[in-house]
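Figure 3 (text version): structure tokens given as input.
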């Protein structure tokens, strides 16, 4: 699966790298709700309506990463029930979670060759996930 190519196509088609605008253009409802201290977000469908739920308690920059991750599930895994994204699944070895992380990283750092620690800190992205972009390019 060429995730980078999919991201490039989405940016060209929708002319945005904002996850909330992209979700709107993909007709995905985005809701901010209290999901406690460990759940960051999740993607689901309710009567065929795609919905991304994002923890309202997450930092606003982390919410951008979460939204891209969940859009990744919508685009890459339309008919698969995905688990909650939580602080533990950031380090998941599950194929679908790695693909959603890679999708999010490709959007976050679109057209950026070098990712710095400051870039990662800005979005609360663990260093281990940055390796996914390195290998996905």
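Below: residues designed for each position.
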């Amino acid at each position: 699966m060429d995730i980078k190519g999919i991201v490039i196509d989405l940016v060209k088609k929708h002319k945005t790298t904002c996850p909330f605008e992209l979700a709107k253009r993909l007709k995905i409802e985005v809701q901010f709700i209290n999901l406690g201290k460990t759940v960051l977000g999740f993607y689901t469908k309710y009567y065929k309506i795609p919905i991304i739920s994002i923890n309202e308690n997450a930092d606003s920059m982390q919410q951008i990463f979460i939204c891209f991750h969940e859009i990744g599930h919508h685009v890459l895994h339309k008919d698969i029930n995905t688990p909650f994204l939580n602080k533990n699944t950031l380090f998941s070895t599950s194929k679908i979670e790695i693909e959603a992380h890679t999708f999010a990283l490709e959007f976050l750092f679109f057209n950026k060759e070098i990712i710095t620690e400051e870039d990662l800190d800005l979005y609360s992205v663990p260093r281990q996930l940055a390796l996914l972009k390195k290998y996905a390019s």
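The radius of gyration is 14 Å.
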